[in-house]
């Protein structure tokens, strides 16, 4: 045991040096000794190098978002270890039983969990999952012993708002088939389950330590191979499900569309009033809205966002400007920084640029590898599906202009002291790579426009036409979803 403890400490330091992120999940029956086993497991580790998370009753804001986003925000940075004393699996079971969901709901949840873990694995995370198993008879004996010692079977923070436990204390037989189904369905090569026979606690700790040490060793060996020796890790299993490219979407856009000033003013008032009224209906029905703006530099994203929120209650919406990720954000999987910005039920979040930077600027400028941006289409579709399945209304706008219009707007900004701040060297550099960006945009539009999260290309040479199309689309989409 001592030798293994020393080895674990050394492996933790090596993983930190190589910036290998590690996730260790502990699940199991209540009274299986999980708390004691985790404590003994972490003793040889440097506490400065791991984060410990235990499942608690969700707060008000967490209850108004898809439960999985709560865990997205807790994944460790590269080089650290995230230890979960119960995890997304326990939350999935609680959701299933508390809300009396059916078999289809469970399957959909398990599908989302596999999305989550596969994306992390593809991004270099080592994921280990342990289930501490004891028999029902053993559990009952341990309950008796716990009660004799005067220890509460469940702490208050482990109960839901109705006072029900979050650790499956009662109903072993009721939970057993669900637990077996989850273990079988989510035991995958990139995030395997290890069943720990927990009747003997010394054996349980030894098995956990051995498994973790062996997995980290293999991961270190893989990372330190020379590029020529490395095996191909990435296999886009969903590639055949993505639509084949069908020419150019942007070439078919009619940029001559325009409206008069009178039409603009009349339509603007009409649709802004509609969206204002719909905002309160969304709150009443607890439906969130995600609006994404992407487009060419100087295409009018800021102006469109301003007109969209002009008459809205600021308590119910948030505008998120997205720039280059900082060092801390880069130390996570790229979708991590967007999870906390997703809206609560009944609220709206408007993204001024978004996660699509992965397949646009990061692709064109070489900030991500072909493997990384290549799998991002699938990852983004999965991320948006989680939002859609939770009830979110998702609208994604690509504001399209031609090169001549962009040049006119660039030059106008240079001569206008109030707008000069809008033009940067990056804008000119991006313009020089217009053709490369056009290829990336066309592929993005075709591979990530789904039934639940469609792309709307907005003809934006005429700013008035662009703004009205966005307002009209938002109003009609919300009306359709709400059936009003």
From TrEMBL:
Gene3D superfamilies: P-loop containing nucleotide triphosphate hydrolases
UniProt xrefs under Pfam families: PPK2
Top-level taxon: Archaea
Any GO molecular function: polyphosphate:AMP phosphotransferase activity
Residue runs in coiled coils: none
Residue intervals passing through the bilayer: none
An example Gene Ontology biological process: polyphosphate metabolic process
CDD domains linked to this entry: TMPK (cd01672)
UniProt-listed InterPro entries: P-loop_NTPase (IPR027417), PolyP_AMP_Tfrase (IPR022489), PPK2-related (IPR022488)
Polyphosphate kinase-2-related domain location: 3-218, 262-481
Span of the signal peptide: none
Protein name as catalogued: Polyphosphate kinase-2-related domain-containing protein
Organism encoding this protein: Methanosarcina mazei WWM610
